[in-house]
Amino acid sequence: MLDLIRKKQKSLLIKIVFWVIIATFVGTIFLVWGRGRGGPGGEGEVAVRVNRQRVTFGEFRGAYENLRRLYQNIYRDQFTPEMEDQLGLAGQVLEGLINQALLLQEADRQRIRLSRDELVESIARIPAFQVDGVFNKEQYLRVLAYERLTPEQFEEGQRRQLLLEKIRQQMEAGAAVDEEQIVDEYRLRHEQVNLAYVRFAPALFENAVEVTEEALQVYYREHADQFRLPETIALDYLEFRPADYEQSVDLGDEALQTYYRRNLARFDVAEQVQVAHILIRVDEDADERLRAQKRQLADQLLEQLRARDGENFAELARRYSDDAGSAVRGGTLDYFVRGTMVPDFEDAAFALRPGQLSMVVKTRFGYHILRGMGYIEAGVKDLADVIDEVRAGVLRERSRQIAMQKATDAYNIHHRGADLETAAETAGLTLRSTGPFERGSTVPGIGSAPELNEAAFRLGEGEMGRPVALAEAIYLVRVAERTPSRVPDLDRVRSAVEAAYRRQQARLLARQAAEALLAEVGSGTALEAVVRGMPQEVEQTGFFSRSYGNFVPRIGNAAAVAAAAFELSEEQPVADRVFQVGDRYLVVVLKQRQPADMAALDEEKKTELKNLLLARARENLLETKLQELRGRADIKIHPALQHSLKEDMIR
Predict the structure, then answer these.
(1) CATH architecture of 232-253+388-483
(2) Of the candidates 210, 242, 258, which has an alpha carbon nearest to the alpha carbon of residue 403?
(3) pTM score
(4) pLDDT per residue over 437-489, tens digit each?
(5) Which CATH number fits domain 2-174+634-650: 1.10.4030.10, 3.40.109.40, 1.10.510.10, 1.10.3720.10?
């Protein structure tokens, strides 16, 4: 996905005038509103100066926040903090602000002006300001007030946007596409090739690798750091388990009342209602005749229900309701809270009290008749109703507090001498040991405990750490042994070194075999003839076109292969080098070339291609002229912002 987004970023739509897109959304109209995720500089301090125009950090952060919010709206849950960093939004914003300033300055230099009528007409066309398709002044003022903008502020932003559009159109005016370019583009897009290829997997050559002691020694000297053993520590520790202190917990009335009052939110009861319903289903695309028939049936059922005060509701629901799930229960639904059902159904349900019948209610599912079955008011559960939950909460909370207090007391008394032995004897606990473990790994005897692992590695050998609270217990630890990172003797890691050496040499042998095959095929020998008798086999990609991009069928993402494929010809069918794709080496030969069917290039396709090529030409022309403006401009970026951007690039 990131590759796709980065391709989109290359478009001038995003790269140069992204703020114009943002301006089309009421609520993110200006780059100067809102705050980003922080960074250097005060709000009024200059972040970047473009000739004589200054852009403050406040404006930069506002632009950042608007761009981040736009990506968030587009990619939803897929837009993670990691994606945000990888996309380099800060760099995009800086480039966009610089380009915007340069374009507006060029518009001023060329004396491009905007009339009041043009501004008014552009605002009147914005749908957010229209009622029934017509501009409405009250709606205009209402929307701006909601966005905390004055008409003057909005109109200035709109004026800048229109000026940008005018200068952009002027700069792109020289772009043109001729018939020859259209034909060439069609030919490039539609010609296809089928490649024959042989791949050499290093794994097939590992058994052919000769391992000698001398070679192994040389390899280990050159790659010793790859086999470095990490730093390890071993801990002595005491485990203060809250469960061991439950008998000491006060479960008196005051303790229960205190916990209950402090946790009232846990015992909230939302307003709830229970209804039974009969659904006469009507599809949304049903014609009026069918809709009228269904409504008539619903009215007749309601009359029957009213005649017997709803006592026959379950019987009629089982017989007539189109909601099969509830019909078998006499139409009865479970209790539900507001926001659960479609609005019209929900409004009718919450208006009923037990035993009451509703009118016929229309929703997108059809017609409903509801009967109130039960109602629960919003409120808070009484202590008596939740006494078991409260008692368990007090026991859990207080026993953990006692365990933490015991561990803290032991630390305060014994940490200077790191005397865990005496602490264990005093607390009546057993002193345990972990055995060695690495930074970031599970702790032997304790399990996955990142916070404990991190805290322990900050301690020196023989040092006791402050209590660390984990889910099941409170731990008091002492570093019993610390072993620094080191390069071991070869004998200790011989098997790993030998395996790595075999893999390295197998890669060399695989590449050499591929190059030998390429040399034979390049001299004119048929690929199939050379491969005959070898463990490798000749494979084919099948036909594919340039539209596949870097993807080559049966090979995968292989940009170099994809680029070379369309350079091959009948005169020179063999690619001039061995390609590495993943851990394999490929020899590639043109099997067949299928030219584009030029007869299929009709006027409709010509128009489509012309529009695409024209858009590309305009982008290139605008990019070229912007680069010329940047080359002549005096642009100064605040050092703190430059440093921040460099850090983002490193990440």
Answers:
(1) Roll (3.10)
(2) 242
(3) 0.54
(4) 999 999 999 999 999 999 999 999 999 999 999 989 999 999 999 999 999 99
(5) 1.10.4030.10
